[in-house]
Each structure stands twice: as structure tokens, then as C-alpha cells.
Amino acid sequence: MTYGPGLVGALLIGVTAAKTVAFAHNLPLIPVNHMAGHIYAARYVKPIEFPALALLVSGGHTELVYLAEPGKFEIIGETRDDAAGEAYDKIGRVLGINYPAGKEVDRLAHLGEDTFDFPRAMDHDDSFDFSFSGLKSAFINTVHHADQIHETLDRNNLAASFQQAVVDVLADKTVRALQAFPDVHQLILAGGVAANQGLRDRLTTELAAFKNVELVKAPIKLCGDNAAMIGAAAYVSYQQQQFGDATLNAEPGLSFAYRA
């Protein structure tokens, strides 16, 4: 059962229902971090070999997570503002695309070219952190300026330019993280944005240079929020005898540990 992170109302309903079922049927209560669920969706492809690195990209999170062993997660890099998926949805609104916009922006991107050269924030700094707010603002300002001077911009090229900027930063940071953690056996791509074909293709290409690192991509049908991924994470917790009790509560701001 997911107890965080997320919207508090939904979490409270889920936690209450799970505690009720567990009590009524004398079943173990297993609290699951929602983001761990995304990562463990990769277990439906093949077993995770530790240590591993996960690129977790969703509407609310963009993180590089080091997995030393089962059930242990350490954030080594995260977004300092907008998550990648959030940026997709916001520029999708400007393009007139219904929420969630990621799939349609990805489709348009494959029809266009990177002609706008949008910024790649923090791409070459020393951290593994991300920033997509500036990219989002540059995109929106470009479209609004064109509207004001009655200039028509190519939607496919806009989508391609935006996606190229996002993928460049995600891929570059991930490659640098793999270089910094040479003990890693697998790179796990997970989260809603992990369904993006442009990102999947780019990481497949980049991983060719890492002979000892295997790319494990969460199945596209399990990239978005789903019960199966929570079950995969719950099974690991069950094996480690990590159970909750009647005092368990929702934690909307729940996070992994940070590497010092």
C-alpha cells in the first residue's frame, strides 16, 4: 500500500482502506514508497542486480537514485524546480495538448527537428541535479512572443527542440553518474516519462559505451502509476519483514535518503 509521496487526500483514503483490510483479514500491512514502486516496476523485466542506479522521471519527480541493496535508496541528484514530466505538461498546455501531454509531445518531436536550441540548464555543472524551469519558461516565452508578432511557429519543431533539451540533460547527467559510480551493474529507467521513446532510445545509445552496465527499462504499460509496481515493491518489503501497524499514516512529502 502506498503511503507517500503524493496528494494527502488520496493517500489517506488508501492507507485507511489498507489498514481496514489488513485488520479484518489478519493480513500484514506493508507500507510502500510510491517512488520505490516506480523503480521496482523494472522487476517485471528481470531481477535487479545490485548495486544499481535508477533514473526516475515523472510528473512530480526527477531523480537519480543509487540502490546499494534491496530496499535501500539514496538520492544522488534531483530537480531543483520543475520535474521533467511537469515541464512536459506545462508546455503541452501552450501547444493545446490535453493533459497528460508527454505522449503527444513525444509523437510531435519525432516529426520535427531541434531548430530552437532551447537552454540545457545545469547540463555541465558538477552536481547530478536537474533544472527544467528555465527551459519551460524559454519555450513559453518563445511561443508567446511569436503570437504577439503574429508569427506561426512549427509545432513539430517546437516539440522536438523541447524534447531534445530535456533528453540531453537527463542523458548527460545519467552518464556522468554512471562514470562516478563504476560499481553499478544496471541502469533502471522508471517513472511516467520513462515511456518517452526519445529518452528510451537515447539511453540505449549511451549505454553502449558501458560494457558492464545493463539498461533495464520499466515496461511502458507500467511506467505510469499502477498497482503492479506497488506490488513489486511490497514483495521486497515483505521479504525483509518490513511491516506497518495501526499507527501508520500518510506522508505526502515522503522521500528517499540523500547521499551525504
Could you characterize what this model shows?
This protein is an alpha/beta fold and about 260 residues long. The protein has a single domain, classed as ATPase, nucleotide binding domain (Nucleotidyltransferase, domain 5). Helix content is about 40%, strand content about 15%. It is built from 8 helices and 8 strands. The strands form 2 sheets. It has a 6-stranded mixed sheet, with helices on both faces. A two-stranded parallel ribbon has the order 1-2. A hairpin with a 2-residue loop joins strand 4 and strand 5. The longest helix has 26 residues. The protein is globular and about 65 Å long. The mean pLDDT is about 95.
Short description:
Helices cover 42% and strands 14% of the residues. With 260 residues, it is of the alpha/beta class.
Q: Report the major sheet.
A: 6 strands, mixed
Question: So what's the overall shape?
Answer: globular
Task: Name the beta content range.
Answer: 5-15%
Compute the number of structural domains: 1
Order of helices and strands: EHEHEEEHHHHEHEHE
CATH class division: Alpha Beta
As residue ranges, the low-confidence spans are none
What attributes does this structure have?
260 residues; alpha/beta; Nucleotidyltransferase, domain 5; six-stranded mixed sheet; two-stranded parallel sheet; 8 helices; 42% helix
